[in-house]
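If I may wish for something, please walk me through the protein I am sending here so I can picture the backbone:
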Amino acid sequence: MLTLTTAALRQRLLERGVPAWNWACSDDTYRTVAPDYVAEVWGAWIEALRANAPQLLTSRDVGGGLRRTVPLWVEEAGDCDNHALLCLAHALTGNWIAAAQGGPRTGLAFGLLHYTATARANNRHRAGGHAQLWFCDHAGELRTYECGDGEESKLTPDEWQSAIFGYAA
């Protein structure tokens, strides 16, 4: 695990080609996260929805005859930015609880990213303005997670460079 200062996190963003000047970084330090942490947070968020608002869930074909429970897409009211913010809020609550119980008192190198998506098969042909979660893993690599699919995704260099807003929590 790495702990990054705000300046170090912004430097990683710049090295990736992300316009880091338009990022909100409200904490002094950020702890990197493992990819399985992001998937676990997403799964816990889906389970919280299942318990409290099951009407906000649907299932999606993920190939091979398998289906995955995912959040229901409702344009403007329950779309990509809403999904990413709500999943992020779930992670922040867990981080807050851990800190209150004596765990590390840092932000997470994990947050929200708004960018322009380029349609291609591996992003379900999403195009135009889009939002996802981003995170910095323990090796210091920036990665993304698509809350609408429940899986890690890969942005192109142009997509990273198109970021219009990012939030580190």
User: Anything to note?
Assistant: The CA atoms of residues 119 and 125 lie 4 Å apart. The chain is about 30% helix and 30% strand.
